[in-house]
Specification:
Blueprint: E1 2-6, H1 10-22, E2 26-30, H2 33-40, E3 47-51, H3 59-69, E4 74-79, H4 84-92, E5 97-100, H5 105-119, E6 126-129, E7 132-135, E8 140-143, E9 146-148, H6 152-163, H7 171-178, H8 189-201, E10 210-213, E11 217-220
């Protein structure tokens, strides 16, 4: 999943980005409101993590502007402001969640994952189709009761397919959600990771779950397919 992190405190920005990348997220960053505002409207992010105390343009102004202009990405406000008034104002301007600094890393991750599920209209943290089980909290994958070891990038691809289970997603859609702004791979790398996943998910199992729709993209077989 692709995240935009807007945070002006550079040590915190680097630490959060590193942690998210290690979890398999694609992360773009901005260190001020002007840069963050531009990036938020240039890509389709699953979640934007937004600090309120930003140079050039403050977070609340950005948030209000995005919602007026139709930016639909979920926004997790991350700030040192802990008063009820600040929280209410942020939520009323269109924030989806609010986390006060200092925070526990596990809580940030849990809130982030919940917002991603909400964006795909999924409430259960465990995704299932046929005998495939994906636990979005622990990032574990099982098929036929057998634990499947996947890399963070493979997991991100499989989770994205699962969120769109039964629907075809194009290579460009997959690439946009899995790779950040500094990645120089092309959408052709998606084919490589699809092949890796098929070796792990479909080999020695029936029916095959990762399907190709020629000229359109890929899909994860739903229970009704």
């Amino acid at each position: 999943m692709r995240i935009l992190l807007i945070e002006d405190h550079k040590p915190m920005l680097r630490a959060i980005k590193q942690g998210l990348v290690e979890e398999g997220f694609a992360v773009d960053t901005a260190a001020d409101g002007e840069e963050g505002g531009f990036k938020a409207q240039s890509a389709n992010y699953d979640v934007i993590i937004l600090d309120l105390m930003l140079p050039k343009i403050d977070g609340l102004t950005l948030l209000q502007k995005w919602r007026k202009e139709g930016v639909s990405s979920h926004v997790l406000v991350l700030t040192a402001r802990g008063s009820i008034d600040d929280k209410v104002k942020g939520l009323n301007l269109g924030a989806d969640d609010y986390l006060t600094k200092p925070f526990q890393w596990e809580e940030l991750l849990a809130r982030l994952k919940a917002l991603i599920r909400r964006g795909h209209q999924v409430k259960d943290p465990v995704l299932r189709t046929h005998d495939l089980v994906i636990d979005t909290a622990s990032h574990s994958v099982k098929r036929g009761g057998k634990l499947i070891k996947v890399t963070p990038r493979e997991y991100s691809l499989l989770q994205y397919l699962a969120f769109n289970c039964g629907k075809v997603v194009s290579r460009s859609q997959i690439w946009e959600h899995l790779y950040d702004e500094h990645d120089d791979n092309t959408s052709n790398v998606v084919d490589v990771y699809i092949r890796y996943l098929r070796t792990k998910i479909d080999k020695d199992f029936e029916p095959p779950l990762i399907l190709t729709r020629w000229g359109e993209g890929y899909m994860l077989r739903g229970d009704a397919d």
